[in-house]
Amino acid sequence: MEQLSFLDPIEKSVSGATWWAGNYQCRNWHGYYQTRERGAGPWQFVVYAFGDKEAVIYAINNIGSLYHWRVLMDAKDRLLIDGKRYGPRF
User: Fold this and answer.
1) What does the alpha-carbon distance between residue 54 and residue 69 come to, in Å, rounded to a whole number?
2) How far is CA 83 from the centre of its chain?
3) How far is CA 24 from the centre of its chain?
């Protein structure tokens, strides 16, 4: 039986990379960190903190580590990410 440590490491810094962390499927979506529970449902951004007109989400840098990224929020509490608005579903 092979050990999991012998599997090839996942290059998390590459857009489109996916991996599992417990029950959550994770991915790098154009440098932003997204998850979905049990690998089903819509991909969701992981919000670290909310402010009045902005939120802090997790992003992935060029070595595959997570960091905080500030994004604007509109009056309907949608996140503005790369020119597109994402509501609570995402």
Assistant:
1) 10
2) 17
3) 11
